[in-house]
């Protein structure tokens, strides 16, 4: 019954996402690339309708929800670009200067309010300008089909000293209480993060390589909160003071063709973080940064990640979960056709001791590793301080599959590390076609497992002799574990 209800909800959401993304396609005019001569010959008679999706090239990993194509023209259905301009709210028409130093916040807020009030309104930050705005909450509800389109450059004030005293230091752009909204454009969101990374409170920035004490808030660049049916596409997002994108309390999120980048040593600059968010697709994006490429927190389910390239980064991470004895539930996460390179971790599941709940139904498939530490890691002893006491409860980790994971690892750590709880073992781990070779030199430590149960369908390289067959005796008691 529970499962059935779940399936119905998921199907509905998929339908909503499908409709949503085809709406998006309908709004943009985009150029056909295939069978040009054929189209040309036909076009004087009847031009192809814009809302018919292109057939997908099978060699490119594609999302199952008909992703929007690259928008190239913000003025849909009109070659002269005039007839639909009543839906375009250009921030320069609301007084934005876009010289990189004038505070354009009020113009953005005014354009937002106007666009929010009409169906399919477009807030446009045009090409050729650099807009600076302060921490702002763009809130709904709005009329459906709202588009926030950045074709130019949009950025926050440069560092903590320029940050207005009255503004939150935890977030910059916030989108709140929206349904059916698109954030897109061919422009750049420049985070101006450098002065935040250099604060003495940040790891390794203090006088002796130690972080100094004291408040250390740094803003997440873009936050979506309590919103549904979102499409985020095409933008270049870079140099965030902290997380680049954060989703909390959202449902139905399609992320496509983003490019996220920050330097390798920038602290806490996670690429995309989701928590309490359901039905998410993250496709065909490039992420390089100083922390997790994608991190998945508690309360997430039905997340599909495909065609993502990470690196340098700290890999794709589920967790950390169960901190301060909390309950965490994460289920049905699929990561496929990914490349992870020059990263501190590959695919990771990390939980604190003392938590409850479960991580279940996780599939890692077709992942290429290039010079990665801890290519495959489950750590149920996650601890920031190295002073965590052993506790008996733990977030249960089960039904985890690793298929076709190949490439090279950095020999400083074993490529496979499954450290499961003494009292709540990991169960039903499946490995198939896992082949990991040293990037250079020799393997120093063999793969490690502790209390990890599962099966190898094919022989793993390097050999994994530590996985336990069958099921632990206590498994029945923990199986549901509150989720
Ligand atoms: C392109 O044209 C060829 C030959 O006319 C046809 O077989 C093919 O299906 C067409 N492809 C598309 C995407 O229209
Ligand atoms: C469309 O707008 C442009 C520039 O604003 C103008 O020059 C042109 O005459 C307009 N075209 C029509 C058909 O209104
Ligand atoms: C916690 O348990 C692990 C695994 O049994 C053991 O190696 C470690 O020494 C224990 N730590 C403490 C602080 O008791
Ligand atoms: C083990 O996990 C797989 C998914 O990886 C799932 O299909 C299967 O049903 C699970 N087996 C058991 C016995 O729970």
Automatic annotation (TrEMBL):
Gene3D superfamilies to which the protein is assigned, alphabetical: Single-stranded right-handed beta-helix, Pectin lyase-like
GO biological process: carbohydrate metabolic process; cell wall organization
InterPro entries, alphabetized: Glyco_hydro_28, PbH1, Pectin_lyas_fold, Pectin_lyase_fold/virulence
Top-level taxonomic group: Eukaryota
Pfam name, any one: Glyco_hydro_28
Family from the record: Belongs to the glycosyl hydrolase 28 family.
Name assigned to this protein: Polygalacturonase
Record lineage: Eukaryota, Viridiplantae, Streptophyta, Embryophyta, Tracheophyta
């Amino acid at each position: 019954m529970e499962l059935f209800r779940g399936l119905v909800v998921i199907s509905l959401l998929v339908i909503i996402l499908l409709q949503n993304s085809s709406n998006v396609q309908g709004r943009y005019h985009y150029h056909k690339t295939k069978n040009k001569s054929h189209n040309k010959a036909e076009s004087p008679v009847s031009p192809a309708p814009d809302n018919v999706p292109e057939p997908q090239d099978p060699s490119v990993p594609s999302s199952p929800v008909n992703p929007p194509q690259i928008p190239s023209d913000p003025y849909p259905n009109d070659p002269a670009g005039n007839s639909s301009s009543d839906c375009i709210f250009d921030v320069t028409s609301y007084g934005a200067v876009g010289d990189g130093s004038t505070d354009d916040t009020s113009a953005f807020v005014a354009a937002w309010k106007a666009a929010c009030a009409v169906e399919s309104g477009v807030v446009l930050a045009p090409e050729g300008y650099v807009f600076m705005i302060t921490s702002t909450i763009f809130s709904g509800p709005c009329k459906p089909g709202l588009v926030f389109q950045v074709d130019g450059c949009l950025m926050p004030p440069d560092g903590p000293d320029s940050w207005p005293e009255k503004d939150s230091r935890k977030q910059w752009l916030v989108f709140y209480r929206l349904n059916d909204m698109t954030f897109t454009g061919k422009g750049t969101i420049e985070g101006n993060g450098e002065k935040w990374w250099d604060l003495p409170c940040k790891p390794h920035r203090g006088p002796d390589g130690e972080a100094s004490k004291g408040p250390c808030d740094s803003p997440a660049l873009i936050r979506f909160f309590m919103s549904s049916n979102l499409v985020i596409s095409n933008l270049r997002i870079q140099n965030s003071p902290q997380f680049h994108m954060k989703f909390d309390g959202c449902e139905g999120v399609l992320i496509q063709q983003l490019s996220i980048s920050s330097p390798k040593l920038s602290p806490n600059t996670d690429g995309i973080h989701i928590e309490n968010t359901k039905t998410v697709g993250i496709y065909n994006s490039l992420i390089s940064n100083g922390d997790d490429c994608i991190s998945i927190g508690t309360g997430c389910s039905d997340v599909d990640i495909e065609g993502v390239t990470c690196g340098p980064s700290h890999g794709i991470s589920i967790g950390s979960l169960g901190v301060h004895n909390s309950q965490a539930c994460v289920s049905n996460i699929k990561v496929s056709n990914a490349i992870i390179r020059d990263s501190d971790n590959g695919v990771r599941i990390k939980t604190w001791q003392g938590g409850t709940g479960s991580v279940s139904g996780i599939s890692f498939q077709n992942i290429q590793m290039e010079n990665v530490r801890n290519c495959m890691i489950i750590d149920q002893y996650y601890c920031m301080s190295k002073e965590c006491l052993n506790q008996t409860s733990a977030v249960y980790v089960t039904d985890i599959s690793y298929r076709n994971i190949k490439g090279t690892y950095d020999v400083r750590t074993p490529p496979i590390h499954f450290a499961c709880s003494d009292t709540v073992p990991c169960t039903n781990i499946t490995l198939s076609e896992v082949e990991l070779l040293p990037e250079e030199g020799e393997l120093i430590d063999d793969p490690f497992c502790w209390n990890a149960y599962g099966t190898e369908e094919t022989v793993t390289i390097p050999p994994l002799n530590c996985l336990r067959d069958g099921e632990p005796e206590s498994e029945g008691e923990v199986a549901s574990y509150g989720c």
